[in-house]
Amino acid sequence: MAEFKEIDDINFPYEAGLIKDRAQALTFADYLNSKGIKAVAKPSFGSSYAIYVRDESDVSKVKIELLHFMNSPFAKEYNKAAWASGRTVKRERTQGQGTLGFMMGNYAWNPFTLTSVIEIICIAIYLVMLLSNLEPYLLGTLSWTSLAQITEGGEVWRVISPIFLHFGILHIAFNLVMFEAFARNIERFLGTFKLLGLVLAMAVFSNAVQLLFQDGMHVYGGMSGVVYGVIGYMGILSRREDIPEGLRIPNGLLLVSVIFIGFGFFLSGIANFAHVGGLVVGLLAGLIDLKGKLRLKEA
After folding, report:
1. What is the distance between the alpha carbons of residues 115 and 112, in angstroms, rounded to a whole number?
2. Beta 107-109 vs 14-19: how paired, if at all?
3. How far is 77 from 91, CA to CA, in rounded Å?
4. Among residues of the chain, what percentage have pLDDT more than 90?
5. Which residue of 33, 34, 136, 286 lies most exposed, with the fewest beta carbons within 10 A?
6. Residue 51 belongs to what H/E stretch?
């Protein structure tokens, strides 16, 4: 990614345009350089950033390129140019990180995001079940074994709460690692309310489908339905050209996930219908956002 020139640079005397967002200015400068147009991004007046070029003859070209860039700043061609440059810009501060967060390279963990809150709840419940005698109480309170618990008992939280239950270290580790890998970028680029809506829809539908296909003698739980839903959503969304790289998943991951769900039906002790339910919601949500207007937030 391009770096800022903090002082006047006589090698780049011609201003060709302004971009309000810092990251986008850096990305655009990298893109221009990848096209053979020598350019840099420099802080300008107010909160804007100016693009300067070396040759006056490139000014008109840059203005045209800038129009295309502002229409779809997250297109693959621009992001690829930033990564290809092999340079990074240190962030002065991770917004909202707070004193309890931490950074590792370009990765930042913020405890006050929805992604982190869900993970913390899962871990807390798992530890309480593991280290105390409250497991029967928590299973009886958070699991969902019959529709009557909702319709007659009014215990509406049960349509969501099974996602917080986990029954082994590998179970919770796999689910939270996958949730962290994908859900955090959804919240980062699309916002907390978008992620909240997806998680709620995936949780309710996956739990309901699992309940429909199993007897009332067993309890089930875990984030797997939501995880498969998130993968399904991002798998479809990855077909868009105008999204950040962070919202894309590796080619083939969606297919591999479907295959894993299929394998699950040959094993015992797996809430396979919850996986299917979550995936279906994710695919449908992805199809809606594939062609619709996607509201991106500043990352």
Report:
1. 8
2. unpaired
3. 23
4. 37
5. 136
6. strand 49-53
Three-state secondary-structure class, residue 47 = coil
* Contact present, 16 and 39 (Cβ < 8 Å): yes
> How many other CB atoms are found less than 10 A from the CB of residue 89?
14
Digit-coded pLDDT (tens) for 188-200: 889 999 999 999 9
pLDDT tens digits along 100-138 = 665 554 456 788 899 999 999 999 999 999 998 998 899
Tell me which amino acid residue 208 is.
A
Please count the residues of the chain.
299
Tokens of 161: 């709460």
pLDDT at 291: 86
SS (H, E, C) 171-207: HHHHHHHHHHHHHHHHHHHHCHHHHHHHHHHHHHHHH
d(CA 242, CA 91): 24
**d(C-alpha 267, C-alpha 251), whole Å:** 27
| Six-digit token string for 96 | 């909202």
